[in-house]
Amino acid sequence: MNKNSEYILGINQTELERLEFQHSVWKKVTDNFFDRIKIQKGWKCLDVGAGPGLVTADLRQRIGDTGEVTALEPSELYLSNFKEKCKINNWTNVKFLLGNMEDMNLEKEHYDFIFLRWVIDFVPSPENFLLKLLPSLKKGGVIAIQDYVYEGIFLYPKGGAFDNIDIAVRAYWRIGEGDPHFPVKIPKFFKNNNIELTEYTPVGLAGDSESNVIEWAHKFFMTHIQLMADKKVISQIEADAFLEDWLKHRDNPDTIFFSPPMVEVSGVKL
Ligand SMILES: C[S@@+](CC[C@H](N)C(=O)[O-])C[C@H]1O[C@@H](n2cnc3c(N)ncnc32)[C@H](O)[C@@H]1O
User: Fold this and answer.
1) What is the mean pLDDT of the chain?
2) 9 C-alpha to center of ligand 1: Å?
3) Orientation of helix 212-230 relative to helix 165-175, angle to 10°
């Protein structure tokens, strides 16, 4: 990562716990994606921006003892949390790479599968990021990405401040030099870089005021709306209005929350 840009979501225990809850809500979506990709026993996999290794652990189960999975992650807190989990469970087919992907010297044509969930939208120069990554994928290997196109999020009943939350979140991504629309650029990137697009599917989740989907969004907005104001992405007045509208909806049994679409993209290296 560019030394001057920041990873906007931050690294701390609260964020780690949010990532764990988030994984419990979206796990079935990622599992279905992996089913369609048909991940094989014995594959060598790389989980880029693995966080505390939640998907890495799921991949480990799929590839079995003859396979190998590597968690690449710049946060020492997240990686050591995952290392500890691997030690307790005596998982021996897991490798760890600490650092930003941009600073890694990855082995050429080593991996059968490279995966990125909720990473590519945050990094500056995502095309360069992928260009650095691709030589480590074997010919015939699969690269798969899950990330948002940050549009379409909404809260019913409409009419309050939250109707404009997508504008604020996109601006938040951009102060870290991320691109909240990057998945729309991936098909062209694949075409230009010898990757055959095999899937491009948007998926969304929705739920009422008692659902785990709204609880997942709650954990994000309760922390990050104030951080958006602290970082001057929005004013304090806007932050207060977003939170007031959100909390009003949380108490309303008629509320339905729709997540932004997450795009599932996969391609094979020719
Ligand atoms: C929103 S979290 C997602 C974690 C995990 N992929 C998941 O699905 O739970 C994004 C992760 O990307 C990592 N990250 C940020 N910049 C990165 C970079 N330049 N190279 C590799 N990982 C990065 C962060 O440290 C963080 O753990």
Assistant:
1) 96
2) 9
3) 60
